[in-house]
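Review form for a predicted model. The reviewer records the input and the model, then writes brief findings.
Reviewer: anonymous (R2)
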Amino acid sequence: MDDNEQLLKSDIIDRHVRQNLNLSWLNFAVLFCVTIIACVGLNMNSTAVVIGAMLISPIMDPIIGMGYGFGIRDTKLIRKAATVYFIELIVGLIAATIYFSLSPIKAASDQIIARTQPAIWDVLVAFFGGVAGIIGSAKKEPGNILPGVAIATALIPPLSTVGYGLSQLNWSIVFSAGYLFLINTFFIALATMLGTFVFNFRKKKAKAIPLKNQILIIVAAIVITIPSLISASTLVKQTYNQTQLTNFIDNELPGVYVVNKQIVDDKIKLVVIGSDINKTEVKSLDTKLNEYQLGQYKLQFQQLAKGNYLSVSDFKKYVDQEKTDSTQNNVNDNSKQNLLKFKQQLLKKYPDAIDKVYVGQLVAKDKTDEAIVLIKLNSKGESDQNGIKKYAENLAEKSNVNAEIHFTKE
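Model under review:
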């Protein structure tokens, strides 16, 4: 028997699907444990733990079972798969809600937020994941296909995120993550149904899907897909605007150090350090936004530094400050190591003039090589402020540190 013939054995699919539909407390216990693992990963913002939870995805089996049941028109199988699915759904929600209700960490991590922004790409992943799943079920030895599908479609993390939303009574998260879970469920089942139909058609066992059912499936697919298209359109627009804004800053504000940038409603908010920007200059810059397809927005500047001076509170808000010398020495990031060495050399050069040196890199992820150095002088050092700044700027250049030098009185 060659590989293609083995791949298309519909009886293998049938056996695998039915064997995986078990109304057993062991399955539900595994799901409870997997959900807790996923919740820990989401809570602690650990990608590795979340992926580990994805690998063990018992809730995938009843979804494939429902799709396969529809494909072969087996009402009994559909009912059994739906029963297992809804019990596992409830078990998962209970586990996640309990965990997040008891967890002392209530803030939504990046991993949680990532499950609240479904888009059309999630529809594609779910659909082709379902196709891969049914192909995997058709093989005698699925190998790494089904674990890969489980990771790609990621059913447990959005379900856990719904539990987080329920525990915090945050309905926006509940509905957003629930929508992602619905996308995965529906399109995995749809792909399984279509794959089953194709396999049976090749075996000349296919039963035509009634026209009424075909229309219902198409309408359901369209209705479920529309919000993801809107979300994708918004995401593409945001990405484009951010790219254009970066180009605008690079070209029109070369002498200004932009610490943070945001597009909020109809305003572009820029937190800057550098030369003062007066109202006339702001108006001129507003008109140039049209050249970057950002004419619908208005610029709003927040100037942090007053002359050479910057407050410690502003510094700590916008940079990732080093915690201790020992922790920084363990960091493999060359830019952070160079920054720490710069700080040590500066203190060594002016031990009697400098009380404190704060160093840190910008929090903004797209500018991790840019840093701010904040120097607190004592009474002796204040008389040589210009000399110290000039030395610090030269030292930064020699140390391969891309930093703005400022002083603080705090």
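Findings: The domain at 238-303 is CATH 3.30.300 (GMP Synthetase; Chain A, domain 3).
Further findings: Residues 211-252 form the longest helix (42 residues).
Recommendation: see findings above.
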